[in-house]
Amino acid sequence: MSDRENEKDKGKGFTVSDKRSFVIGENGQVEEQAEKEAPSAAPSDAPEVESKAAEAAQEPEQKGDRQEKKSLRDRIKEKLNKAEDVEEESDHPMPEINFTNFILSLSTSAMMHFGEIQDPISGKQERNIALAKQTIDLLGLLEEKTRGNLTDDEKRFLESILFDLRMRFVEYNKQESSPKTD
What is the pLDDT of residues 30-52, one digit of tens each? Predict the structure, then answer.
C-alpha cells in the first residue's frame, strides 16, 4: 500500500453491529432467537414500484425487531433492579466481591460437601466426597492459573485453604475406605 492510501484509510473506522435477536424464555433465561429469513429480492425486470413496496414491507419488521430488543433490554434491566432491591432490603448485605471472598465461598462449598456445614437450602448435613474433591480441584486449578498474579496475602490464603481442604479430604477418604467394625 502506498503512503497516500494509508493516509486515506487512517481516518476511516469501522462499525460493528450485533444483528442477533434475544428473548427471555419461559424459564426466565435469555435465549438467542433464530434469524428470520430475509424476503426474496424482487426480479430484475420488476418495476421500481414493486421494489419500493418490498422495502416498505421490510421496514415494519425492522422496527418490530428494534422494539423487541428494547423490550428485552427493559425486562433485563427490571430483573437486575429487582435483584439490587432485594440486596438492599436484606438484613445481611452481600460481601464485597474480591478474590479472597471468592476462595472463601468455594472452600465453604467444599466444607458443605464434607458434611461439616448444613446445606442452606435443604438444611441437611450430607457428605458427598466426590463434589468436595471437585471443589478442591477447582481451587487447585485457580492456584495454578493465578500463579504470579496474586498478592502475597492472597497466595498464602489460597495455599492455606487448599492445604486444609486436602488434609480433610485425605481424612474423610480414609474413613470411607476403612472397614467398619461394630
Answer: 666 655 444 444 444 444 545 55
Opening angle at CA 43, ends 38 and 45, nearest 5: 155
174 confidence band (pLDDT: 50, 70, 90): confident
DSSP reduced 3-state for 40: coil
Cα 140 to Cα 161: distance, rounded to the nearest angstrom: 10
Residue 32 has which C-alpha cell?
438467542
Asked if 126 and 119 touch (Cβ cutoff 8 Å), the reply is yes
- pLDDT tens for 71-108 read 777 877 777 777 666 555 667 778 888 999 999 999 99
Distance (Å, whole) CA 72 – CA 33:
12
Helices in the chain by DSSP H: which ranges?
Answer: 3-10, 48-89, 99-113, 129-145, 152-177
Of the candidates 159, 170, 169, 101, the one whose C-alpha atom is nearest the C-alpha of residue 132 is 169
**pLDDT value at residue 72:** 77
Residue that is written with C-alpha cell 480441584 in the block: 137
